[in-house]
Amino acid sequence: MSTYAEKNWGDCSKAVAYNLNFVQMCYSPGNVPRSEYYKFACDVCRREEQIKDFEYRKSDFSKKDYFILDHCCYGVSKELKEDMIAFGLKESNFRPIYIRNKDVILGYQIVTDNVLPDTTEVNGKYKFSECEECHHKCYELYDDLQSPQAYDGLGYPVFLTNEAHKQLQHINCLYEDHDDIIISCSLYDFLIEKYPRLECRPVFVGTVYEDREYLRLSNRK
């Protein structure tokens, strides 16, 4: 059976890692202010950092083993978390997600402090601002990479530089987005055996401008 990555991005035999791409969304209560979970890490650019474990209503929470939170973070069930621990990840790679106002764990948010070196250029992104105070950089895709046709709207694969590839660990995040989680091929292979429908995007060494779908759409212009 073809994996989610193979169905949507084709041949993944040269993938060096995989990017979590879970699609099942969990929605938090609408009346909870963002300031409950975040504070400004910098008062100038208003960059945020998480200060509290997330809380959700049980009725709004995913029954799947893997999901994306509406805070744009990825989460897993207790069972999947235990499988990842058995593979070799640490407890520190998981933050509990609680039932709202109760000390009951619904699942776990995936976190990591292994930030890969800047991959923005090879992923077709440009810096549009940099904070003078904390030097935090913000990025956007170039217009020709925002085509909704690309891979049926799923977007291009993720690309790494050789430098970033050399620094890959089993769980990583991208420089431009610390919630964008990259896992090693060995962890992916371990998980796909138990969760064959696991939703991940392939990661290659190279540049998006060599991608077959980008070239196809460019030739149609």
Task: Please tell me about this protein's structure.
This protein folds into 2 domains: 4-21 and 114-219, no CATH class; 25-110, no CATH class. Helix content is 18%, strand content 29%. It is built from 5 helices and 15 strands. The chain has helices at 4-9, 78-87, 162-166, 185-194, 212-219, and strands at residues 17-20, 25-26, 38-40, 48-50, 55-56, 66-69, 74-76, 94-99, 105-110, 125-130, 137-141, 158-160, 171-174, 177-184, 200-205. The strands form 4 sheets. A 6-stranded mixed beta sheet has the order 2-6-7-9-8-5. A 5-stranded mixed beta sheet has the order 12-15-1-14-13. The radius of gyration is 18 Å and the shape is globular. The mean pLDDT is 93.
Question: Key terms for this structure?
Answer:
alpha+beta, 221 residues, five-stranded mixed β-sheet, 15 strands, six-stranded mixed β-sheet, 18% helix
Number of extended strands: 15
Q: Total number of helical segments? A: 5
Mean pLDDT reading = 93
Instruction: Round the Cα radius of gyration to an integer and report it.
Output: 18 Å
* Helix-strand makeup class: alpha+beta
Give the termini distance in whole angstroms. Answer: 35 Å
Short description:
The protein has 221 residues and is α+β, with helices and mostly antiparallel strands.
